[in-house]
Design goal:
CATH class of the largest domain: Alpha Beta
Order of helices and strands: HHHEEEEEEEEEHEHHHEEHEEEEHHH
CATH topology of the largest domain: Naphthalene 1,2-dioxygenase Alpha Subunit, Chain A, domain 1
Distance between the termini: 31 Å
Helix content: 25-40%
Number of domains: 2
CATH architecture of the largest domain: Alpha-Beta Complex
Number of helices: 11
Shape: globular
Strand order of the largest sheet: 10-16-15-14-13-12-11
Radius of gyration: 23 Å
Largest sheet: 7 strands, antiparallel
Strand content: 15-25%
Structural class: alpha+beta
Number of strands: 16
CATH superfamily of the largest domain: Naphthalene 1,2-dioxygenase Alpha Subunit, Chain A, domain 1
């Protein structure tokens, strides 16, 4: 398959290649190379896969207090996450309605308004224009025929779950409750618990020279543990990991979660009232399209995956605990050790995903085959991407037919 698809193909890359992805796993092929290397395919993929359904854009603790604003580059779209005076999180397109300058450049706290640096137009935390400086001439901030009340930052449909902020750029996705229900039901034991974040010892960030999907599919499977994570595999061996495969998320569960801590450092408090499954169980799933989740009896983490073109990915991990006692000084060595563990694990994946990215430039690779046993979660993600492409393409074709 060429790295460029035909201009007259309304469904994007070769429909036959996408159909092969959707075959049963023992017959399927993976997504072909252009999905990882071609700028045009990447741009269309962002539109179909990330912008037409719910995707993760940030964390609620980015805007912990009223008046906090946090800019996000969401796959090339400038967004800003805002917590209003009413404590509600809102998301807007981060662009001034005057001349199109990006409005919020850096995260700010306790703001009363968002002020454009270009001409000092100011918007309140609900996005309404409140000041258009000198719009009627020097010293005159009103103008006949200028409808300030009708000017508003463009809102983005958003929702919050487990400390994550999700967006639907299209505004046309199914209700968020429908999207989140399957994973929320699976993890109902953790519903409504506090999520304690203690600052830098709960945060990790990476930039990877690979396509964003490679970061997701690598996380889905445990197949690579013995070779990429030998230390982790000694503690949590491959034969103790089992597939989780659902239509909107996939990954693995481990049956041998037994955390260790530095000498003298206390264990983290467990979430209250958990069933026995969680005594030694832990689950690691990718919630499609772009957030990686890990849950244990004593902590939860989320990794936001943001593409930066077809061959660069930004990963941001935040760790949360379930009891405020995790904040105290006695737990500081435990928090540092936990952060170091996860930083080491995700660092070990770097060589693998970046080498796969280099391999995607080879004409000797056409998407690859899957292990019918070990690769079920990865195949589930490929199928989800392929369906997102074909369903979006079909909907657009139908809209065009209806219009003309």
């Amino acid at each position: 398959m060429s790295d460029r698809y035909p201009d007259n193909d309304p469904h994007g890359p070769n429909a036959e290649a996408l159909a092969r992805v959707l075959l049963p796993i023992d017959q399927a092929r993976g997504l072909p190379n252009p999905f990882y290397t071609d700028p045009r395919t990447h741009a269309d993929e962002c539109a179909r896969v990330l912008f037409e359904q719910w995707a993760c854009a940030g964390f609620a603790n980015d805007v912990a207090g009223a008046g906090d604003t946090h800019p996000v580059n969401f796959a090339g779209l400038p967004l800003v996450i805002v917590r209003g005076r009413d404590k509600v999180i809102r998301v807007f397109h981060n662009v001034c309605q005057h001349r199109g300058r990006t409005l919020v450049e850096v995260a700010e706290t306790a703001q009363k308004a968002m002020v454009c640096p270009y001409h000092r137009w100011a918007y309140d935390l609900e996005g309404k224009l409140i000041v258009a400086a000198h719009v009627g001439g020097a010293g005159t901030h009103e103008c006949l025929g200028f409808d300030k009340a009708g000017i508003h930052l463009k809102p983005v449909r958003s929702a919050e779950w487990m400390g994550l902020v999700f967006v639907d750029i299209s505004g046309a996705a199914a209700p968020f409750s429908d999207f989140i229900q399957p994973i929320a039901e699976r993890w109902r034991d953790f519903a409504d618990l506090p999520l304690i974040h203690t600052g830098t010892d709960c945060s990790i960030a990476f930039t990877l020279n690979c396509n964003w999907k490679l970061a997701v599919e690598n996380y889905c499977e445990a197949y690579h543990l013995p070779w990429v994570h030998p230390g982790l595999n000694r503690y949590s061996p491959l034969d103790q990991h089992h597939n989780i495969v659902e239509p909107t998320y996939a990954g693995q569960f481990s049956a041998c979660y037994t955390p260790s801590f530095p000498d003298g450092a206390p264990a983290f408090p467990n979430a209250p009232g958990l069933p026995a499954y969680w005594d030694s169980g832990a689950e690691y799933v990718a919630l499609f399209p772009n957030v990686l989740l890990g849950i244990h009896r004593d902590h939860f983490f989320a990794v936001l995956i943001l593409p930066d073109g077809p061959a660069k990915t930004h990963e941001r991990m935040e760790i949360f605990y379930f009891d405020d006692a995790a904040r105290d000084a006695n737990h500081a060595p435990s928090r540092r050790a936990n952060r170091a563990l996860w930083e080491s694990v995700f660092s070990e994946d770097r060589d693998a995903v970046e080498a796969m990215q280099r391999g995607r430039h080879s004409p000797g690779f056409d998407g690859g085959v899957f292990s019918p046993v070990m690769d079920l979660p990865t195949h589930a993600f490929h199928k989800w991407v392929a369906r997102s492409w074909t369903e979006a393409g079909s909907a657009r074709a139908a809209d065009t037919d209806a219009t003309f």
